[in-house]
Structure formats: structure tokens, C-alpha cells
Amino acid sequence: MAEFVEKSLEELLPVFEQLKLVQLFSPEEVCDFIKNCRDYEYKLCKQTKVAKDFLAYAAYLEEKLDLIVERRKELKFLHRYDQIDRPLKHKCAHLYRICAARFKKMEYHNKEIAFLHNAKMRKLCSQAYTRLLQIYAHLPENHVRAARFEFFDNNSAENARTLILMGLRKFPQYIPLWVTHFKIELRYVARLLERREFLIKTNDRSSHLHSKNNEEIKKSFDPINTGDDEFLKLSLAKVVFEMAVKTIRERGQKAGLIRQFIKIAEDCGEFTKDLVLSMREYMSIYGLELEEEIDQMELLEKATLTEDYDSKPLDEVLKRSKTQEKKIRKSQNSKTAGESWFGLPASEM
């Protein structure tokens, strides 16, 4: 056991030396740090391993990382990040990975992902999501989380599409998957258009061509008039919309899904005007707007208050349903019931 503990401490030996050398920690603090790490390593080498030992060690290293960040700000020392912070982060990620792989609980995977996300270790976080989906692929929200991370944090549209399509094969009726897929496709086109605008500006600054040639370049790279490029004409987003409408069966869910699509498209910018108009036309053709108005009228009728609502007691204003009153009556009867014949309470006689 001792040799494994010493081997693990030797891997962190350069970190201890650098902390003492650059005076982020005092010599006494470094000695306490080594001693506590040794105690945690001995706990991990026990014959019967417990998840709380791994989590406690990882939490202790996270506290030290936060302390190092504070000391760096105080001393204005921004060097030797690779020699101090990075090894501690990798050690902490290793502990979370072992804990999640050994005990296989959802909460341990979530803690690993949360740490990697906060530490901005995107490659390891992508691998952690892959391991999570290998075990908990039966939960559709995990596909949504993984796809959103891959696109918005890891900047990988291909991985995000792959995860979303895997989830849609298993859960075609799960609406958040369709919403995430639609949002990813629109945001990806928005990124491409922003990149086009940036390239146009850089070309205008650096080029020494004539004005006519510049006008031709601007026309060919116009972010609004996309020309014959089907991808920038939101063809993929239209396909996602059509497939979602065909797959979702209930009219109420379908209307709510289209409303979410319209809201997402309106938030993206001007290049989605035609798509928004086509979705609104679809709602008007199939009578989905009428259902929306009926739902709003029903909600207004329920929310309408009478003139003497303020004079009534609170129980009368907040009207209970029949099932709620039945449950309350039953609980009150069971509390007041005493002993009776044949072991039955008085309320059931």
C-alpha cells in the first residue's frame, strides 16, 4: 500500500516544489498539503473503497485550486500555470473519473461533468459525456445536455448533430430534442454568416483592389443574399421543422413545438424571416392558431376574479378541486378516527 501512495505523491512532487519556490504557499502550508494528500491517498488504497473518499479528496484539491487562484490575484503572479494548476486539475479530474467508473451512479457523473465544465477542460468533458451516455442513454435529457455542450461550449456542430440524432432515434416524441436540434441548426448558420461578415471587413481593410472589384466581392459574400447556397438558405432547419411536425402526433404538443420554433427563429435575426413566415402559414393552414386562442381564453376565464374576492376568506378564493377536498376530508377523518370493531378505523365503518 505504501509504495502506491508514495508513487502518487511523487507525481505531485513538482507541484509542491513550485508552490514553495514561487511562494504561493508558505513552507508550513506545503507540508500540511503533502500530509493531507498522503492521508487521502491511504484512504483510496484501502481494500474496501468508498465513493466518499474519492469525492473528499477531489473536493480538497478543488479548495486548494481556488486558494491558488486567490493567491495569484493577490501577488499578481500569472506564470507557471502548466507546472502548478494543470497537474492539480488533471489529478482532480482523474479522481472524479475513477469514482464515476467504479460506482456508476448518475450523481458522480454529474459531479465529474460539473468540475470539467468549470475547469474548462472541454476535451475531457466531451469524453465524460460519452461515458455518461454509454450507461444512461435511456434518459433523453442526457442527449440534450451532451448536444448543447458540444455545440455551445465545445464548438463542435458535428458531434452535436450526432448526439441529437442518436437521441431522436430512441425518443422521437421528446420535444426538447427537436427544439435543441432546430436551435443548433439556426445558430450554426448564424455563426457562418458572422464569419462571412468578418471576412468581408478584413478583406476591405487589407485589399488594395479597385472599387469595382470590391463591390463584386461584397455581392458574392453578402450575408443576407446567400445566393444558391442551400445550406445558408436554412434548408437543414426546414428539414428539421418538417420532420418534427410529421413525428409529433398530438395537436397540442405540435402547436407548442411550432411556437417554440418561431420564438427561436425570431431571436436569431433577420435571416430567418422567410422561415418564420412559412411556420406561421403552416399554423394558420392547419388551425393551430385557433387552438392557441382557445387555450388563452380558458386560462383567462380561470384567472378572472369576482368583485367581492377581497372580502372572501383565502380558502374560498383559492377554490379547491373535488379530488383535493376528498383527500383533505380523508386525512382529517383518519386523524380523528379511533379504535372500532374488527380492527377497522371509524371512518371506514
Automatic annotation (TrEMBL):
UniProt GO BP: maturation of SSU-rRNA from tricistronic rRNA transcript (SSU-rRNA, 5.8S rRNA, LSU-rRNA)
Name of the protein described by the UniProt record: U3 small nucleolar RNA-associated protein 6 N-terminal domain-containing protein
Principal subcellular localisation of the protein: nucleus
Pfam family, one: U3_assoc_6
Residues of the U3 small nucleolar RNA-associated protein 6 N-terminal domain: 9-77
This protein's record includes keyword Repeat: yes
Record field: compositional bias (Basic and acidic residues): 316-326
GO function term, MF aspect, one: snoRNA binding
Alphabetical UniProt keywords: Nucleus, Repeat, rRNA processing
Top-level taxon in the UniProt lineage: Eukaryota
Database matches in PANTHER family: HEPATOCELLULAR CARCINOMA-ASSOCIATED ANTIGEN 66, U3 SMALL NUCLEOLAR RNA-ASSOCIATED PROTEIN 6 HOMOLOG
GO cellular component: Pwp2p-containing subcomplex of 90S preribosome; small-subunit processome
Localisation: Nucleus, Nucleolus
Region of interest called Disordered, as start-end residue ranges on this chain: 316-349
Presence of the UniProt keyword DNA-binding in the record: no
